[in-house]
From TrEMBL:
CDD domains: HATPase, HisKA. One of its GO terms (cellular component) is plasma membrane. It comes from Planomonospora sphaerica. Its EC number is 2.7.13.3. This is histidine kinase. It is an enzyme of class 2 (transferase). Gene3D superfamilies: 1.10.287.130, Histidine kinase-like ATPase, C-terminal domain. One of its GO terms (molecular function) is phosphorelay sensor kinase activity.
Length: 402
């Protein structure tokens, strides 16, 4: 079990994984150099000083392997393991000078170094590594009087290892993007499941209660109460439909890259009042009777309903909807007097799955869809911290509809 755990720690993403992979390469290089030194593979052409140098190189590799394995790289920063390239190139230069141009002795490890860099670095970083790698290989060969062979071997080796590193880097980046798409698809599937489990159950319960009440009555139910029950059922059915429309909107943004709108000039106060009546919450409306905007009525209702539902659910009264003209735009403010949005959540407020807060029934799509709908109208949605509650402002163009 322990061996399996150690093996598993070598794969994945993050600084700890990168460092442990580097530790494995250092340990491999140190072990092989140690074997060469002990067995006297180069005894025919070398001396005891050569063996001592090889033992020193092996020791340096093994020390770097231990440091790479045991240092707390995650706490040192996400890019911290990349400093391991520095001792690798220094040892590489030392070994190249020791092997005096024997490419089979140092070339494979330079290839492994660039493959490791390609797994964890972008292509531009791999290409930048080519310069110090060239110097660490060419300069020792020139110091060892390898002559033209030094240049030839450098011309052959360095482009090859850099190409390997660049190819690995591009492929690793592609794989990370594919994994991110799969992660987001799984998150989207989970969000749909959560939405169906939470947001649909409550209105369906209300619809069922209203229908059962109407069914079980024997004719003694007053017409006013019957109409009220039917109104409840219709309102909750409309809520389910809006939820379905929101999920479809999110899918359209992904698949089509935009939303199609039926834009026409509509009276803003009438639209706001319909949303407030449908919501059934304590909301004050301060919108002029003569104010109109070019918008898709259903989409604008969806924007306002999302913002008002959040204000009623998470804020505190009074919840106020107001509007004003500002240059060539109309600003619609939805303000509550609750605790507001915590600073740590504001950056992700309009991102998909980002604004769930502490609400277990929220899947974080409402504000994201709200902004997408506003942008489809040529406007936007922004958040303002008022000091006493939250204020969301819908910016809409006031000119003629396209």
């Amino acid at each position: 079990m322990r061996a399996r755990s150690l093996w598993g720690s070598l794969w994945g993403e993050g600084p700890e994984v990168a460092a442990r992979q580097a530790a494995l390469l250092y340990a491999l290089a140190g072990t092989l150099v140690l074997v060469l030194a002990v067995t006297g593979l180069f005894a025919r052409t070398g001396t005891s000083s050569r063996a001592t140098t090889l033992l020193t190189i092996a020791a340096a590799d093994l020390v770097c392997a231990a440091l790479a394995w045991f240092l707390p790289w995650a706490r040192l920063g996400p890019r911290s393991p990349y400093v391991l390239c520095v001792p690798a190139l220094v040892i590489q230069a030392w070994a190249t000078w020791t092997f005096a141009g024997f490419v089979a002795g140092t070339g494979p490890f330079l290839m492994l170094l660039f493959a490791w860099a390609g797994l964890h670095l972008p292509v531009r970083a791999v290409l930048a590594l080519a310069v110090p790698a060239t110097l660490s290989y060419l300069m020792p060969l020139l110091a060892a009087d390898s002559g033209p062979a030094a240049v030839y071997s450098t011309v052959l080796l360095i482009p090859a290892v850099v190409a390997v590193g660049a190819i690995v880097s591009r492929q690793a980046a592609h794989q990370r993007r594919a994994n991110e798409r799969l992660r987001r698809a799984e998150q989207w599937r989970a969000a749909l499941t959560s939405t169906l489990a939470h947001d649909v159950r409550s209105p369906l319960t209300s619809v069922r209660f209203a229908l059962e009440s109407v069914r079980d009555e024997t004719g003694d139910l007053p017409p006013e109460e019957r109409r009220a029950l039917v109104a409840v059922a219709l309102r909750q059915a409309a809520r389910i439909r809006r939820l379905a429309d929101g999920l479809l909107d999110a899918d359209r943004v992904d698949s089509e890259g935009g939303l199609r709108l039926d834009v026409r000039r509509i009276p803003l106060r009438e639209t706001v009042q319909e949303v407030v009546d449908d919501l059934g919450g304590p909301v004050e409306v301060d919108v002029g009777e003569d104010l109109t905007v070019p918008a898709d009525p259903q989409r604008l209702e969806q924007v306002l309903l999302n913002l008002l539902a959040n204000a009623v659910r998470h804020g505190a009264p009074p919840v106020v909807v107001s509007a004003e003209r500002a240059g060539g735009t109309v600003l619609v403010h939805v303000r509550d007097h609750g605790p507001g949005v915590p600073p740590q959540r504001r950056d992700a407020l309009f991102s998909r799955f980002g604004a769930t807060g502490d609400d277990p029934q929220s899947v974080g799509l409402g504000l994201w869809i709200t902004r997408e709908l506003a942008r489809a109208h040529g406007g936007d949605v922004r958040y303002t911290d008022t000091g006493e509650g939250a204020c969301f402002t819908v910016v809409l163009p006031s000119g003629d509809p396209p």
